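[Meeting: bench + compute handoff]

Bench side (C.D.) handed over the final construct sequence. Compute side (W.E.) agreed to return the predicted structure before the next meeting so the bench team could plan truncations. Sequence as handed over:
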Amino acid sequence: MSKKQPTRGESLAKAIISEYKPKTVEDMQNALKDVFGPMFEAMLNGEMENHLGYEANERNEKETTNRRNGYTHKTLKTSAGEVPIDVPRDRDGSFEPQVVQKRQKDVSSIEGKVLAMYARGMSQRDISSTIDDIYGFKLSAGQISNITDCVLDELTEWQNRPLKAFYPFVFVDCIYVSMRTEQGVSDQAVYVILGYDLKGKKDILGLWMGDTESKHRWMQVFDEIKSRGVQDIGFISMDGVSGLEDGAKSIFKNVVVQRCIVHLVRNSLKYVPSKDYKAFTAQLKKIYGAVNLKVAQAEFERFCDTWSKYPGAIRVWKDNFRHVEQLFNYGSDVRRVMYTTNAIESVNSSFRKVTKKGSFSSETAVFKVFYLRIKELYQKWQGRSIRNWAMVMNQLIIDERVGAMVQKYQASF
């Protein structure tokens, strides 16, 4: 059997080990830094020879006025740390190197790594420390801010992009963030809208800010998404902001607004001792999980009798029972989508991971970190649709109101 020939990589590795005799990972990184510099310089000199048309030790037989003009020293940031190199220059300044371009000082793709860390909620100090630990050079707070600012144009374009004409389901909610102002630190509401399109794909329609969550601000938000192309919405699921239902219907007259059943459960539990939580919620589930409206109504009567000792809890459900009843106008798969805002609460939970570090200096700072998080969510959602979406669509088409909208917009989708 013939002896296996070493690969080019193995031969190079043996040569480096023979020359440097590294004992630790740090020794190996230092060896690589020594190798990187000459490699970059050799490639740059090759580019210069190609640019001038003759090698460094050849006579300029073309008798052009342009020729080599010394070197410019620069320090590159690489994956192995900082590497000093000398970049060749030409007399007339027409040389445009490609391996390491003019003004380029970072060849480690560090920008993408900084954006990823920022999107995961790491502070500027933590990012700087991590980069220093891994790559051996420091980034200032200003440098990190400049790197993350590169998404601002993309963010503006995303915030103003045209939206689809019809969303069968839309979920609305607010998340509060801490903002630093001249008056001190205060909580600000970030309005978030999640939509499902006709293919069952998720999309975050936008982000908006306000001092608090209010009906009037939601109306402004709905008016904006209408101006960006949304003509109809099938269902809006929300947590019960006073006046929001009327505000939504003033913008989208055909929409059905659904109170989140999970929020109603939470609100009613405020009036129930913890020892009764399990039995109380189990009986509630028999109401909104019933097979049809008649069964749900019968279960509700039993529920009211059983828990009459907690009138505050009963009042929550009596005041909102029409939202339970309207669920049964639709098939079970549609009900499972519309009865809760869990989908958007999951989005906001993702946002909370990047807001728990502290307060923000501006609205731009909030939107920047949220948008980077949204890009990660888009990657996670890519190629996925809502569970049992085919059945959801079949049940929507049966309904006279939503079915008409589906047929109207499906052809142009």
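W.E. noted at the follow-up: The mean pLDDT is 84. C.D. will use this when planning the next construct.
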